[in-house]
């Protein structure tokens, strides 16, 4: 009710953000653990001022685009480059805001000295709605294909472990009622 009253123009989007936030919080044991995992210190207060444990290994820097402005890194990974994230869903109705989001992406991609990786999930999960197909950022559609090397990670199908294959009484029993049903894949669960 507070969102509906205070943010009547875009409260459904804000409610989705809150649902996502609750989903993230569910996986933590305490509020303190959750908040500490969300906190990102500015780069100048974190990894850049620390000495690596080994001389040949540079620190991994986790940063927002805003915090990385003016810095350069050997390799940059831009994650979750989806429409609604980059550009933000809140910017979609305003051309000036879209331009600002494009400038943010420019800042992000120009931080890479050698390697730039831009990734996004094909499937998203939303609490209470389940999985749905996502769209890559609209900013990526104008990138010439010659500049891209597309990769797609495919989940491997695991075969049944040897101990299951050696248990014919369980595998032959099908659904546990003495007969196989059409969806039975032979596994005991």
In short:
By secondary structure, this protein is of the alpha+beta class. The chain has six helices and four strands.
Question: Can you describe this structure?
Answer:
The structure is a single chain. With 189 residues, the protein is of the alpha+beta class. Helices cover 28% and strands 11% of the residues. The protein has six helices and four strands, in the order αααβαβββαα. It has helices at 2-6, 11-25, 31-38, 95-109, 162-165, 168-172, and strands at residues 73-78, 112-118, 123-126, 130-133. Strands 1-2 form a two-stranded parallel ribbon. It has a two-stranded antiparallel sheet with strand order 3-4. Mean pLDDT is 74; it is low at 164-189.
Biggest sheet strand line-up: 1-2
Shape field: globular
> Helical region count?
6
Helix content: 25-40%
Mean pLDDT: 74
Characterize the largest beta sheet: strand count, sense, and whether it forms a barrel. 2 strands, parallel
Radius of gyration, whole Å: 23 Å
Q: What is the first-to-last residue Cα distance?
A: 43 Å
Tally of strands: 4
Order of helices and strands: HHHEHEEEHH
Quickly give the structural class: alpha+beta
Percentage of residues in strands: 5-15%
| Contiguous runs where pLDDT drops below 50 for at least 5 residues | 164-189
